[in-house]
Amino acid sequence: MASPRKPAANGFVRQLRKVYNPLGFSKGYNFVLFFIFAGALMGFTLARFQYLKINGGFCGGPPGNGAAPGECYCNLYYVGIIIHLGTVLPAMFLACFQFVPAIRYKFLIFHRINGYVIIVLSIVANVGALMVARRAFGGFLSTQVGVGVLVIATTFGLGNALYNIKRLQVEQHRAWMLRTFFYFGSIITLRLIMIITALIISPMRAYYSVMSCATILYILGDEATYAAYPLCTPSPTNSSPTEIHIPVVADFGGNEAEIGASLDVPFGVALWLALALHAVGVELYLRLTPREHERLRQVSYVKQLEAGLKNPGGAGLVVQRVGDAEPWVPRGEKVVEQKEKEKEKDGEGTSL
Fold first, then answer.
1. CA end-to-end span of the chain
2. Which pLDDT value is given to residue 77?
3. Which of 40, 66, 125, 337 qualifies as a cystine partner to 87, CB 3.0-4.6 A?
4. Predicted local distance difference test score (pLDDT) of residue 55
5. How far is Cα 161 from Cα 144, in angstroms, rounded to an integer?
6. CA-to-CA distance for 292 and 301, rounded, in angstroms?
7. Is the pTM above the cut of 0.85?
8. 130 exposed, middle or buried (CB, 10 Å; 0-12, 13-18, 19+)?
């Protein structure tokens, strides 16, 4: 159990410590951040476990729940979303427990096994995401590239986290796991930005998404499609109307096709903006917690020294190996060096 460093400032802090100290948190702000971000991830994940029922749940449900209108029309999307949801939801659920300090300290075996399970599930989920990218929310190039970047970033992060913990570089393992799941968490912020944008652009009725008549028929059915989009009506001169693509106005308050268009149009922008916000946010957090970083590097130094690894304190992927940073010195050696420097200064002073 973590113990507070100084007496509680007031009764509220004292009571709050009774909540977060048993979880292994020694600093209140860390618990607050965990509660906000891990809580959001857990809530989002639990709310979407219902979508593991694909037919009549994720696909075919009412507008605004599950897939966007028309997405499940494509067979490749249908298969990809089964793979994606069946792996990403368990992975994100399990990931929340990885950031509870008490579990890492008291149940290390669970932490390790859980970590391997999460990595495998996340990689498979990324494969499913690539399969659906071409059809998800219109499948525009901005969406496909955004999904690709998110897949690369999270896969790279998981690989770095695994490599560093294998090399006992604990502080880099922490940093890359935080980065990875902040990237994954951008999908929550994405939804908020997308819906807000859809509500803003809908009254304008000036934005359009191009859909095939086959997709519109899948969404609306024959009668509603022919009434709203006459170009999709079969005729002697138009024997294959399903191959025709027509513009559909983005209107969150319109028919199901228009609701789908209102989500398709802002999805790519929302994805990039959310990913940028989360990438900047996690780097800001890492820069604002240098003491924890340094403490864990000291832990890494001891573990690597005991394991007989070369360059203890920097056996993993650290900045000294790839950049021009100053060599890292363990805390005890820093004290010795500082004393030697002070002696040299004293000697210079007496010689004058």
1. 54
2. 84
3. 125
4. 82
5. 26
6. 14
7. yes
8. middle
CA 346 to chain centre: 53
Strand partners for 235: 238
Rg of the chain over all Cα atoms, to the nearest angstrom: 26
* Segments in 49-169 forming alpha helices (H): 75-98, 101-106, 108-132, 141-166
The residue written with tokens 């951040």 in the block is 33
What would the two tokens of residue 327 be?
């060599």
Residues 6+ apart with CB under 8 A from 157: 176, 177, 179, 180, 183
Question: How many residues are present in the chain?
Answer: 352
Q: How confident is the model at residue 344 (pLDDT cuts 50, 70, 90)?
A: low
Q: Is residue 244 within 8 Å of residue 230, measured between CB atoms? A: no
Instruction: Check residue 157 and report its DSSP letter.
Output: H
Q: Which two tokens stand for residue 328?
A: 């890292």
- Spatial distance between the Cα atoms of 234 and 287, rounded to a whole number of angstroms: 62
Tell me: pLDDT of 20 over 90. Answer: no
Give the Cα separation of 334 and 320 in Å (integer): 17
Give the three-class secondary structure for 235. Answer: strand
Whether the pLDDT of residue 251 is over 90: the answer is yes
In the chain, the amino acid numbered 345 is K
- Cα torsion through 96, 91, 278, 150, rounded to 10: 170
Positive or negative, the CA dihedral 313, 317, 322, 325 is negative
**Nearest-angstrom CA–CA distance, 180 and 188:** 14
Q: Which residue spans within the chain are E strands per DSSP? A: 208-212, 245-249
What are 100-126's pLDDT values in tens digits? 999 988 999 999 999 999 999 999 999
Q: Which amino acid is at 268?
A: G
| 3-class DSSP assignment, residue 249 | strand
Tokens matching residue 92: 């994100």
Smallest CA-to-CA distance from 99 within 25, 155, 168, 46 is with 25
Q: 78: which 2 tokens? A: 């249908």
User: pLDDT per residue over 265-305, tens digit each?
Assistant: 999 999 999 999 999 999 999 999 999 999 999 999 999 99
Mean pLDDT for all residues in the chain: 87
CB 207 within 8 A of CB 250: yes
